[in-house]
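Technical note accompanying the year-one report. For the benefit of new consortium partners, we illustrate the data format agreed upon in the data management plan: each record pairs a sequence with a structure-token string. No post-processing was applied to the example shown here.
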Amino acid sequence: MRSFRLAALAGLALLASAAVAVAQTDPFQWLEEVEAPRALDWVKGENARAEPVLTGDARYKTLHDEALAVLSAKDRIPLPEFIGAAVYNFWQDGEHVRGIWRRTTLESYRSAEPQWETVLDLDALSAVEHANWIWKGANCRSPGYDRCLVSLSNGGKDAVEVREFDLAAKRFVADGFKLPEGKQNIDWLDDDRLILTRDWGPGSLTESGYGRIIKVLGRGQPLSAAKTVFEGETRHVSVNPEVVKDAKGNRLVLVGLGLDFFNTAWFVVDDQLRTQRLMLPTRSNVHGMVGGRLIVSIQQDWTWKGDSYKTGSVIAVDVPTMIANQFSPQPRNRGPAPKPVAQVVFEPKDRVALDRDQIRVTDNRVVAVLYNNVRGSLVSFNQTQGVWLMQRYLGADNAAVSIVSTADKGDDVFYTEETFLTPTTLKLGVGSTPMSKPVKLLPAKFDAENLMVEQRTAISKDGTAIPYFLVRRKDLAMNGQAPTLLHAYGGFQLSKLPVYDPIVGKLWLERGGVYAVANIRGGGEFGPAWHEAALKANRQRAYDDYFAVAEALIKDGVTSPRRLGAYGRSNGGLLMGVALTQRPDLWNAVVVESPLLDMLRYHKLPAGASWIGEYGDPEKPEEAAWIAAYSPYQNLKPGVKYPLAYITTSTKDDRVHPGHARKFAAKLQSLGQPYLYHENLDGGHANGADPKANARRWAMHYVYLSRQLMD
């Protein structure tokens, strides 16, 4: 057995060494220089080759106009945000390309024709300042809700400039806080102080490119005068401050130290700006405070002082008591047991879980989205005599549910319900009982009369049942001839839900296409365990799941490899690269958008080091070996027949580096393989800075898919 293990380790070492050697002799590494003239000339040449094919197709104009009509329609639901007693909305359309930030009263918002007041016009601001401002949100101070920190991005990057804005005067504060561009995380410590992390100068960033130092900045102070509160190390992912309050006046200042993408060490900052570790489990998320207790979701099994909590649970933590007792000895079994520091708000069951990203607090309740086999509903939890009781808001069955905004005062909550074929309904949950009323309804954006949705199951390579949704015509002939698009993500505990997508509906389903969404491992559809099943060394499971769904679609006669296409972006773009390199026989179209592809160098490119918790560390030989086994860039090989891929990214993407997509296309070219490459010169990771840019993007996608799957 020992000799077998030594041989196995030697094999891994050889594979890792070979992978590292390939990475070190990369002939296309020069394409990682985002703005270098040589790299941009290559991009322009590729765009000049792809654009005539895609925008010159006879279908392009119709697809573009239909996409633009959807994206800029004035009958879209203006998604609301509670700020103080008012309702705010950020709105873009054909007239307001960059967008306007506007407000109205709750009563007016609930009417058929709300009376909006423009607060900030980004088109006008961009024109005056000769800038390309993209809205990235606002953080408004409580309890007055009179001033906000407005974040503006140059071209859609994650890096933002932050300015203080006066809501009453509707203008930037002349002598207010103004922070230069950077990836930064900020909260109001009080009316005249900010607690924040950003680039403070040389040595102040982590290897992932995020701030590692938290400081307090007073009004009127230069950045150089800010007082340091907390420091992480360069090997950590990030540090983030957060000020949480509840309706009873309780307040906590927290620091989250990102050990990796999923593990966070929590600290409490006292009034003297001293920090103390809070011994919550490191795989946990903080969602706010209710009744003096911190609401925390945990992504791991956890035992504290003899009390056990199950992964996927939500707990309410008494922070002062926890701090006072966290380093005390384990209590002996004498006398009455002390009250648990953490109360259980929710505990998951098999394939029944809360969406980690859809948990909010109001004055008296915790509201969350619950999924039962990927079918959602809104629930709330209310504490009664130390016990948290769950109540379900009445609503559509088998829907995708999303919390839009919770009231700053009271228990009101805006949320949406939708299905693949049912347009989005915006509802308002009113007060302290789970009663809700429809407020806005999105008009139908495509003809769904003859369409139907099925939830099916495929069996993956290891026997795991993988659910997937199939949207198709009711009279579809199961003869393998249907042009079918299969979408998935499979990472970072993000779920793919049955959402109403007018672009898919109008540009694909209405034209006879079939649409499938696979709930593969790596996502969050069934809680943390579903995600953890495809982490690091087990990454191949997510890809096997995806292939199993594709094979089921073919076996059941829905489609065939000639008519089957794959689409994914970001981590889903990595999935697409694997689909192309491992199973080129399954598809005739693969849209590889904003992708990670060179997985042996992903950690060296901006933000990449923060994802080591998801993929593993290429610097470690054993981990490099199993990353190299699937890394798409390294696994492109001569002599293999690949389908014509469409690879697309954005020059200003400062989250997933455009070098991944560029190098992948260049290597395909060197192998004499067919491909189309297009790089949006603006737009950031979202790949579209405005409705017009997005309409062009989607039209090009669907021209390519039409050429490959429908022609």
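Partners are asked to follow this layout when depositing records. The chain is about 25% helix and 35% strand.
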